[in-house]
Design a protein that fits this description.
The chain is mainly alpha-helical. The protein contains 13 helices and 2 strands. The chain has a two-stranded antiparallel ribbon with strand order 1-2. The two termini are about 25 Å apart.
Length: about 300
């Protein structure tokens, strides 16, 4: 295991010593934040106002601070959700760079077992992604906490970090099957640009997935990142929605919070069927395990060549 730990440490150091890699890892988060400040905040507020217009008597019962927290948490979900896609892929740039510079051939010439090489790349990239996304999430939670109550206890916060960890690992395993097809860092960078642009739409960071047709929703929810984002959204927003429901006092029988959950997608829709949170968790885990198995088979054949 010393060889595996040594390679993992080496891959971690290679990533964190590259300042440009770290900056590009955060690029999608910066883009989503800029879009939110310029365009998306008004869209989210308009969606909430549309629900309130149907029941004007609710406006006086809901605290303005709770609505600000609600929109802030929706923003944070979009930022972290996008980062759970782009950061793991960028962390795997080491695999492409090693292949381009023939470093992988030097590693293969050592007594290190093939599965240790593959697992070290996966572990280092997964840990790097969890660290980076953990930082993004922490900054977001602290900023929102300074501006108001986020209605989250220690258990909810821990659960949120666990969801982020699951999202990072599942994305890393999925992208491990893609990066072997890139022969140069420039090709990998071009794909990263496309991924950064598309990821926000796939997970509903820009436009809620519920606004799309059933077929488009199914396509988006094929990707486990969409399910993880929904799990994250449910964990982050559950507390503030519960508090809003208490403020309303039950006069709408929970219609307002139910409408918010429908608009901002708290349940994935695939082939016209709404999935429960437990079913989404099982789906993500199943794709993760399948990706790990496929990854080991793919790399074993590649290294034999």
């Amino acid at each position: 295991m010393k060889m595996y730990i040594g390679l993992t440490k080496r891959n971690l150091l290679v990533y964190f010593k590259d300042k440009q890699a770290i900056i590009f890892s955060l690029l999608a988060s910066i883009i989503v934040f800029a879009l939110y400040m310029l365009f998306l905040k008004g869209t989210f507020i308009d969606a909430i106002d549309t629900v309130l217009d149907r029941a004007p008597m609710l406006r006086d019962r809901i605290n303005a601070s709770d609505l600000d927290t609600l929109t802030g948490l929706i923003l944070l979900t979009g930022i972290v959700g996008s980062a759970m896609i782009t950061v793991p892929f960028n962390c795997l740039q080491t695999v492409v760079n090693d292949r381009e510079n023939n470093v992988d051939r030097d590693i293969l010439a050592t007594p290190v077992k093939r599965w240790q090489i593959v697992l070290s790349y996966f572990t280092a990239s997964g840990l790097s992604a969890m660290i980076m996304n953990g930082i993004i999430l922490s900054i977001g939670l602290i900023a929102l906490k300074m501006s108001g109550d986020i209605h989250m206890g220690p258990a909810g916060i821990i659960k949120t970090y666990l969801v982020v960890a699951l999202g990072c690992l599942s994305s890393t395993a999925l992208f491990m099957m893609i990066v072997p097809f890139f022969r140069s860092s420039s090709a990998c960078g071009a794909f990263f640009g496309i991924l950064s642009a598309v990821s926000g739409f796939i997970i509903g960071a820009y436009i809620p997935i519920s606004q799309f047709s059933d077929k488009v929703q199914t396509v988006c929810n094929v990707f486990p990142a969409s399910h993880v984002t929904i799990l994250l959204r449910s964990t982050l927003l559950n507390g503030v929605l519960t508090d809003i429901d208490k403020s309303i006092g039950g006069i709408d029988n929970g219609a307002f919070t139910d409408s918010i959950r429908d608009i901002f997608t708290f349940r994935a829709s695939m082939f016209g069927q709404k999935l429960m949170l437990s079913q989404m968790s099982i789906y993500v885990m199943a794709v993760f395990v399948l990706s790990l198995v496929t990854m080991m088979i793919l790399y074993s054949k590649r290294y034999k060549k």
